[in-house]
């Protein structure tokens, strides 16, 4: 096997491990992500799984970064081409709700970052820091769209972007809980109704 083919195969194997890790961690948490479980699920040896990461912490960090890529693909990319400001913010919020409602094949346990933040918010270390960093990136992206909407006149001048981000995060935490914990079939409808109260009804 050529070195180039060998490197490509290693990348594909690593991606398979991360994809399975994302699914497992969305249900069992990052601490529940074990080398043994991944090896069994992927029909690999434990050494084969560990060889791609070195440590469990490195596996957790790679899983976090992989989940962020999937979240961006499902939530940001469908909205990215919309007009900056309120049109794009609405598109982001709709994609965000759709992700929570339909991405069970990738995130069977619901919102990956809700699970990770609850699991690590009281801890210290690189995994906790990465959860916080990725969450802040998302909050800043939302705040940027809100500020643009204010500047363009689509949201009131006295809108506090940080407050609105706080309320949006709370809304989607509630949507995730209603779906995952209570299996509430009206959760999406309620979330969109709340969203219209925050952003104003569609024109």
Plain-language structure description:
The structure is a single chain. This protein is an all-alpha fold and 203 residues long. The protein is built from nine helices and no strands. The longest helix is centred in the N-terminal third of the chain and has 26 residues, at 3-28. It starts with a helix and ends with a helix. The relative contact order is 0.10. The model has no long low-confidence stretch (mean pLDDT 94).
Sketch the major β-sheet.
none
- Poorly predicted parts: none
Element-by-element helix/strand order? HHHHHHHHH
Q: Report the end-to-end length measured between terminal Cα atoms.
A: 60 Å
Silhouette: elongated
Content of β-strand: under 5%
Our Rg estimate from Cα atoms comes to 19 Å
The averaged pLDDT comes out at 94
H/I helix tally: 9
Total number of strands: 0
Structural class: mainly alpha
What kind of oligomer do you see?
single chain
Topology at a glance:
Elements: H1 3-28, H2 35-42, H3 46-50, H4 56-76, H5 86-102, H6 112-120, H7 126-151, H8 161-180, H9 187-199
List keywords for this structure.
single chain, 203 residues, mainly alpha, 9 helices
